[in-house]
From TrEMBL:
Upper lineage: Archaea, Methanobacteriati, Methanobacteriota, Stenosarchaea group, Halobacteria
PANTHER family on file: GEPHYRIN (PTHR10192:SF5), MOLYBDOPTERIN BIOSYNTHESIS PROTEIN (PTHR10192)
PROSITE patterns from the UniProt entry: MOCF_BIOSYNTHESIS_2
Superkingdom, taxonomy of origin: Archaea
InterPro entries, alphabetized: MoaB/Mog-like_dom_sf, MoaB/Mog_dom, MoCF_biosynth_CS, MoeA-like, MoeA_C_domain_IV, MoeA_C_domain_IV_sf, MoeA_linker/N, MoeA_linker/N_sf
Keyword Nucleotide-binding on entry: no
Pathways involved: Cofactor biosynthesis; molybdopterin biosynthesis
CDD domains: MoeA
Pfam family, one: PBP_like
UniProt KW keywords: Molybdenum cofactor biosynthesis
Source species of the chain: Haloterrigena salifodinae
Name listed for the protein in its UniProt record: Molybdopterin biosynthesis protein
GO molecular function: molybdopterin molybdotransferase activity
GO cellular component terms, A-Z: cytoplasm
Domain MoaB/Mog: 189-328
Length: 623
């Protein structure tokens, strides 16, 4: 199979123009008033009747002829004969003559012969009860809403393109309209491709390289948010005939087909061939990162856009290029301005000559100024977007952004709130529990060493470090606790593991933590001590352990390898073993420190975390 090469990449502007050339509109439909909220009117609606359709009283009181009250005041009230009463919802059965009044309720029809009404609080009833004393004068029209005063028959009520609000529904109800013509949302078929994909809820076999289908659900949510109607199709494998069948089915049923994956320049990626053979390929490859392998074209009568397979790339391309087109097809306006200005918390280099869509997070310093920091674990990491607040567009001519440089962030939504506290560092179950009691914290489990590095760069409010510190830091310790670490085994310790020596001397499969972890540092220190006792090389001891170099990031991940039967022993915490009902062989205790950025110690959230640590542990405690 011929390999597809990316040669002449389209510019972002050319990609937008290609998508704009496609027809995504979903047509028209009629919906009931109950289903009208948020829909977009397809035609102008005119009032077919007056609202109100009659002259009505605005208050409780007396309907009368205004001229009968001229000159009346508190000292010299006008005396009028009460000849009846009218309540809301009933037809008046009386017509007034000179010197008469009618008791009337709010909203009731004004009787013939009346042109004004007086509120009850400006009147008195004489002793006999047949006359009313009016203690004020009124002019014609006072306290009366005349027919058509709200909406007059023939008047323009709502125009095409109006996104119907609850207020509009009230107006339509008043006009007696129970069904309206609206723009049908574009239907968007979503097809994730790849033999490795499994739908959430099904069993995944990691040994076969299977992963859960992330894109179908995140893209569907984005489609709905942009005003489209998402339709999920079964994921397609990498075989051309099956992929073609599913894409053709989606094209027959939808206005737009979005696929993800199988768009890169690989011999096994065939989706662009399907479009070339069954439709029209307008564009393949865009000069943007992430998102270079994007496709734009037509498939039968449907528009088609192929998104990259990695979740971050797929969503960034969708938000930047596809979501605006869906909103326009649905008749929805661009969302209200959702941008934030701030300064870069640290330098960020980029020298690839493509426009970069950089996911970023927001944090405020002690003075309430907004700092911007990159959040990018690579386009294959699903958490990059979950931990980010928005995007900074970096032009292709920009090689780097300096610390302190002003940038503008396009937020993922207008209601994004920056976290009150940004913490980084060691993954620790005790800390996770304490963070639950804080308002809107964000904690990035990057490991002890990267956490300390970011603290030195001045990005986070707090870094959490486990194990010995290899150098002094410009930071304030706001809490410390100890945690017991050791070797995690299967329940009951069937291999009868007794200590670190067993890893060296016996045929045991071991799972370690990553080199950035504080637990890994403590393990290496313990092995160095053991090597000294044996007059041996610490490196030789490490190399004798089967799996020492297999490091997993989170504190539970190695233990789950033991549960899955993929390892005999894992590095971990006593708390983890207890929670997962596994065996545990203690090795040592390890200090964990919460270190505050010296420039943020006055920040309220930092003080709250320090108080929580003090309440939990005092100055130091066992965890």
């Amino acid at each position: 199979m011929e390999r597809k090469e990316f040669r002449d990449l389209a510019t972002p502007e050319e990609a937008r123009a290609a998508i704009d050339s496609l027809s995504l509109e979903g047509g028209l439909e009629r919906v009931s008033l109950e289903d009208a909220r948020g829909r977009v009117l397809a035609a102008r609606l005119d009032a077919e009747l007056d609202v109100p359709g009659f002259d009505r009283a605005s208050l409780d009181g007396y309907a009368l002829r205004a001229r009968d009250t001229f000159g009346a005041d508190e000292a010299d009230p006008a005396r009028l004969e009460v000849v009846g009463e009218v309540h809301a919802g009933e037809e008046p059965d009386v017509a007034l003559e000179e010197g008469q009044a009618v008791e009337i309720s709010t909203g009731a029809v004004m009787p013939d012969g009346t042109d004004a009404m007086v509120p009850v609080e400006r009147t008195d009833i004489d002793g006999e009860g047949d006359d009313v004393l009016v203690r004020t004068s009124v002019a014609p029209g006072d306290n009366v809403m005349f027919a058509g005063a709200d909406v007059a028959a023939g008047e323009r009520a709502l125009g095409p393109g109006t996104q119907v609000t609850p207020r509009d529904i009230g107006l339509l109800s008043a006009l007696g309209i129970d069904e309206i013509p609206v723009r049908a949302p574009p239907t968007v078929g979503i097809v994730s491709t790849g033999d490795e994909l499994v739908r959430p809820g099904e069993d995944v076999e990691s040994s076969r390289g299977e992963i859960y289908d992330v894109n179908s659900y995140t893209i569907a949510a984005g489609v709905e948010d942009a005003g489209g109607e998402a339709v999920l199709y079964p994921h397609a494998g990498d075989e051309q005939d099956e992929m073609e069948r599913i894409l053709r089915e989606a094209a027959e049923e939808c206005d737009l087909v979005l696929s993800s994956g199988s768009t890169s320049a690989s011999a096994v990626d065939v989706i662009y061939r399907v479009i070339e053979e069954q439709g029209e390929l307008l564009l393949h490859g865009v000069s943007v990162k992430p998102g270079k392998p994007m496709l734009v074209g037509r498939l039968q009568s449907s528009a088609y856009v192929g998104l990259p397979g990695y979740p971050v790339s797929a969503m960034m391309v969708f938000r930047t290029f596809v979501a605006p087109a869906i909103r326009e097809a649905a008749g929805l306006p661009e969302p209200r301005a959702a941008t934030v200005a701030g300064t870069m918390a640290r330098e960020e280099r980029y020298e690839e000559g493509r426009m970069r869509l950089m996911p970023v997070g927001l944090i405020e310093d002690s003075n309430g100024e907004t700092l911007i920091y990159p959040v990018d674990k690579g386009s294959g990491a699903t958490t990059s977007l979950a931990e980010a607040d928005g995007v900074v567009e970096v032009g292709p001519e920009t090689d780097y952004l300096e610390a302190g440089e002003s940038v503008t962030v396009r937020l993922f939504s207008p209601d994004v709130r920056p976290p009150t506290l940004l913490g980084v560092g060691e993954d620790d179950p005790t800390l996770n529990r304490l963070l639950d009691d804080l308002e809107n914290p964000r904690y990035l489990s990057v490991g002890t060493r990267p956490g300390l590095r970011r603290l030195r760069e001045g990005v986070p409010d707090v870094a959490v470090a486990a194990g010995p510190l290899d150098r002094d830091l410009d930071a304030e310790e706001i809490g410390r606790w100890n945690r017991e670490w050791g070797l995690i085994t299967r329940a009951g310790n069937p291999r009868e593991v007794e200590g670190l020596a067993d890893l060296i001397e016996r045929d045991l499969r071991f799972v370690n933590r990553t080199s950035d972890s504080g637990l890994r540092s403590s393990l290496e220190a313990a092995l160095s001590d053991l090597a000294a006792d044996r007059d041996a090389s610490a490196r030789d001891l490490r190399e004798s352990i089967d799996g020492f170099d297999l490091g997993l990031r989170a504190h539970e991940s190695p233990a789950r390898k033991v549960i899955a039967g993929e390892a005999d022993v894992a590095l971990g915490l006593h708390e983890t073993a207890d929670r997962l009902d596994l065996g545990f062989v203690p090795v040592d205790e390890q200090p964990v420190r919460a270190l505050a950025n010296p420039d943020r110690t006055s920040k309220e959230s930092v003080r709250e975390l320090a108080a929580a640590l003090e309440a939990e542990f005092g100055t130091e405690a066992d965890g």
